[in-house]
Amino acid sequence: MSKLETAMGMIIAVFDRYASTEGNKLTLTKAELKTLLEKELPNFLASGKDKDALDKLMKNLDADGSSEVDFNEFVVFVAAMTSCCHKYFEQKGPK
């Protein structure tokens, strides 16, 4: 598989690993999302001083109002985070 195919497969595997711990295996509950962030993006929540960050993130990701994050909503989050990281590293690069 190509690097991009591998990356896509890894995103799917990560989502499935955490979505399968409670209730609906096709969505992330708030608790599952928190665990995913703590384990897969440990600096994401730790760097923020806002104690309501998880609640705000959950509300922003939950586009359909289901109180859970489905795979499409999760992919939008991953893409947005990736875009932010790309922009950050572009700015930090050689001038």
From TrEMBL:
One of its GO terms (cellular component) is cytoplasm. Pfam families: S_100. The keyword Metal-binding applies. Keywords: Calcium, Metal-binding, Repeat. Residues 49-84 form the EF-hand domain. Coiled coil: none annotated. GO terms for biological process: endothelial cell migration. CDD domains: S-100. One of its GO terms (molecular function) is protein homodimerization activity. The keyword Calcium applies. This is S100 calcium binding protein P.
